[in-house]
Amino acid sequence: MAGNSIGTVFTLTTFGESHGEKIGGILDGCPPAIPLSEADMQVDLERRRPGKNKYVTQRQESDVVKIVSGVFEGQTTGTPIGILIENTDQKSKDYDAIKHIFRPGHADYTYQHKYGIRDWRGGGRSSARETAIRVAAGSIAKKVLQLKYGITIKACVSSLGDFTPSAWNWDETAQNMFFWPCLADIPQLEERMNRLRKSLDSVGALVHVEAHGVPVGFGEPIFDRLDADIAKAMLSINASKGVEFGDGFSCVQMKGSEHRDAIGMGGFVSNHAGGILGGISNGQPLVCRVAFKPTSSIPQPIDTLTEHGTIETLEVHGRHDPCVGIRAVPIVEAMLALTLCDHAMRHKAQCVW
Predict the structure, then answer these.
(1) Tens of pLDDT along 155-188?
(2) Are 262 and 271 contacting, i.e. CB atoms less than 8 angstroms apart?
(3) Ramachandran region, residue 68 (left: φ > 0; alpha: ψ -120 to 50; beta: rest)
(4) How far apart are CA 72 and CA 81, in angstroms?
(5) Is residue 66 within 8 Å of 83, Cβ to Cβ?
(6) Which of 47, 153, 211, 336 has the fewest CB atoms within 10 Å, measured from its CB?
(7) What is the Cα–Cα distance from 87 to 64, expressed in whole angstroms?
(8) Are 132 and 85 in contact (CB under 8 A)?
(9) Quick check: helix, strand or coil at residue 221?
(10) H/E run at residue 205
């Protein structure tokens, strides 16, 4: 199976399945002499970890990361960094009764037809369980970006279904289980999610991410545009269905006189472009949003095809997120960090003498 790596200079390759013994990754191209410990990665892994509250999957994984190479005496050595996370709460029996059924909205049908075999335990390789390694590696990329360029990355949920924040305070994002930028809205969010759970349904979400301190020059023209590579990284996340930068799709309803960003002596007057022009960062905050679909695994019955060519009624039981977008926040941050770090090194190799 190809397609398990991302990046050109700063590269991540992941391996492992949802119900396998371990998941892991190899991060290559990390600069030497970067202070790094397992505790550094554990912070973001805790933000992504399942089972923390009733609004996310109840799979109880501690997500303890172990560095097995590439770090010596508390610093990166410039050699490949190997990271491992054990799977400790697999419940494969939850899937025994439906292993022959193609779950609508999942990769069961496509994996079976492409490879002729699939790991039906929790989706195997197609499971979002794999993203724990991305978050661990992304925390390393964040550290490189912060130390070498002063770049910071932050994300939040900016829409849960049709509900949007009544106010916006980045500091409040870390103070609630929804990664929501307005604490005053939390009681309403909890009420909505409780109604959703009782109705045996799920909802989509929009994740808003920003990178500050990105210098002018990251990205390549034409096929390796910075926004194109970020979009690819975001769309590689499970359940992501759309990506936009700056004003995004709303630019369709704008006039050119409204959308173009004037440039004065002090810099850009506005940021409708989202920090990227011609595929290259322009020094403004990089602003991106990622749309996540509603969870497909819900207890409501649905007719579907089986491997035997028959139709059966499927009722999915087990541990699933009523909104996958909530736990996607640290994953989105990680994918942006990995892409920016890769482009930082590509820029340095080509343009900095």
Answers:
(1) 999 999 999 999 999 999 999 999 999 999 999 9
(2) no
(3) alpha
(4) 11
(5) yes
(6) 47
(7) 9
(8) yes
(9) coil
(10) strand 205-212
Residues of the chain with pLDDT under 50: none
pLDDT confidence of residue 271: 98
Q: Is 352 helix (H, G, I), strand (E, B) or coil?
A: coil
pTM: 0.93
The backbone torsions φ and ψ at residue 81, rounded to the nearest 5 degrees and listed phi first, read -95, 115
Map 54-104 to HEC letters: CCCCCCCCCCCEEEEECEECCEECCCCEEEEEECCCCCHHHHHHHCCECCC
Q: 7 — alpha (psi -120 to 50), left (phi > 0) or beta? A: left
* Nearest CA among 76, 351, 77 for reference residue 219: 351
Q: What is the pLDDT of residue 49?
A: 81
Q: How many CB atoms lie within 10 A of CB 110?
A: 12
- Tell me what pLDDT residue 63 has: 86
For 25, 232, 277, 338, the CA distances from 143, given in Å and listed in that order, are 18, 22, 26, 11
Locate all alpha helices (DSSP H) within the chain, ordered by sequence.
38-48, 108-115, 131-149, 186-198, 226-235, 256-259, 329-351
Q: How far is CA 86 from CA 17, 19, 20, 67, 133, in A?
A: 11, 10, 9, 12, 11
- CA-nearest of 322, 330, 291, 275 to 42 is 330
Angle between helix 329-351 and helix 38-48 axes, rounded to 10 deg: 130
Give the integer Cα–Cα distance in Å for 290 and 280.
20
State residue 189 phi and psi, 5-degree precision.
-65, -45
Rounded CA gap, 137 and 333, in Å?
Answer: 11
